[in-house]
Amino acid sequence: MPSSGAPGRTRFLLELFIAFMVTRLPFVSVPFKWLESYFHELSHGLATIISGGIVSHIELFPNGAGLCFSQGGWPILIGFAGYFGAALWGYLIFMFATWPKGIRLSFGLLGGVVVLTIILWARDLLTVAILASLAVLFLLPLKLKQNRFLASGLRVMALMIILNALASPMVLLGLEGQGDANMLAGESWLPAWFWVFVWLATSAFMLYLCWRRVDGAASRLSKSK
Which residues, including other chains, have CB under 8 Å from residue 157's CB and lie 6 or more apart? Predict the structure, then answer.
């Protein structure tokens, strides 16, 4: 692995393959669908607060769906933030995972954000249970002593979040009058498919930025030899 903390090109492609396969496995993929759903609803909540609204609570469901209950704020920003935010969180987490000296801090901060969400916005037992599972997913690996495995695991989780954010908007095309895309279509007069396309492009771009991070580090390493 390059000294920058980014994986080599081959390792990145292997981690991407693992992330893709895990997101397709029944039962095993469920907690990682919760990850994308959590960051999706968290992004809705943050966008609500940023635009002057108030978040009442969020709900997460076993099938990977979620809801953010809020009042006020700018509907277009709030509606757009869900899928965009999930992809952005995935990219940011990937960048955290290329910070060797701060990998444990990264896990701790992410686990702390989930715990804070439980305290502030979780009201029902199912949501608390799902969020508690995600907190364990981030905090339990801290028992591992080798940063190499921690970094690789965090990168795979980040890539799964991006892949799920890339796949999830496609479902909206089959929903009549439901979902963020249809809400945005009503608010902006732009068709639902436009918003789905923007989200797909955003997620693909975040995945590309992850590759750029890896490719750039590998190129610098080869030049220094």
Answer: 19, 32, 35, 93, 137
The phi and psi torsions of 25 (rounded to 5 degrees) equal -85, 135
Q: Do 138 and 107 meet the contact criterion of CB atoms below 8 Å apart?
A: yes
Q: What is the spatial distance between Cα 17 and Cα 120, in angstroms, rounded to a whole number?
A: 36
Q: CA–CA separation, 80 vs 102, rounded Å?
A: 31
Output the CA angle 134-129-89, nearest 5 degrees: 30
Residue the block writes with tokens 């080869």? 222
At residue 68, the pLDDT reads 96
pLDDT in tens, 41-68: 999 999 999 999 999 999 999 988 899 9
Q: What's the pLDDT score for residue 64?
A: 85
pTM for this predicted structure: 0.91
* Closest residue by Cα to residue 39 from 134, 107, 104: 134
Is pLDDT at 2 greater than 60 in this prediction?
no
**How many Cα atoms occupy the beta-carbon half-sphere of 76 within 13 Å?**
7
Q: What is the 3-state secondary structure (H, E, C) of 95-141?
A: HHCCCHHHHHHHHHHHHHHHHHHHHHHECCHHHHHHHHHHHHHHHHH
